[in-house]
Amino acid sequence: MVLLAAAAFAMPAMAIEPGYEQWQVKVQTADLDLSSAEGQRALDKRLAQALTRLCGQPTTFTREDLAALEACRAEAMQSAAPQIDAARTLRAVAVASNR
After folding, report:
1. What is the pLDDT of residues 26-79, one digit of tens each?
2. I want to staple 35 with a disulfide (CB 3.0 to 4.6 A). Which of 15, 50, 60, 95 is the partner?
């Protein structure tokens, strides 16, 4: 399982100030074969859906709105990167050890 997290208003997760909330979305990975291209695509799709739930979609397309959306997505992916890498590595090791 991968946990994506971001603070409201795209604040850095480690520097949450009073009045801001940290939101989290769990992404299930246990049912995916991450050693296969199909499993990787499924994970990417789940991550994209989780990012939309976490960061939303712009209702207007101003530069500021798009920048805030991209900042939220980047922050969430950065915070989840070690978990994503670990899930991919764990699956690859598990598959390799079964051969």
Report:
1. 888 888 888 888 998 998 999 888 888 888 887 777 888 888 888 888 988 888
2. 95
Pick from 88, 86, 84: which is nearest to 4 by CA? 84
Q: Calculate the dihedral angle through the C-alpha atoms of 75, 24, 29, 96, rounding to the nearest 10 degrees.
A: 50
Measuring CA to CA, how many Å separate 23 from each of 11, 18, 36, 59? 11, 14, 30, 20
80 vs 11: CA distance, rounded Å: 15
What amino acid is encoded at 27 in this protein?
Answer: V
What CA–CA distance (Å, rounded) separates 30 from 38? 14
* The Cα angle at residue 96 between residues 78 and 39, in degrees rounded to 5: 50
Pick from 23, 20, 21: nearest CA to 4: 23
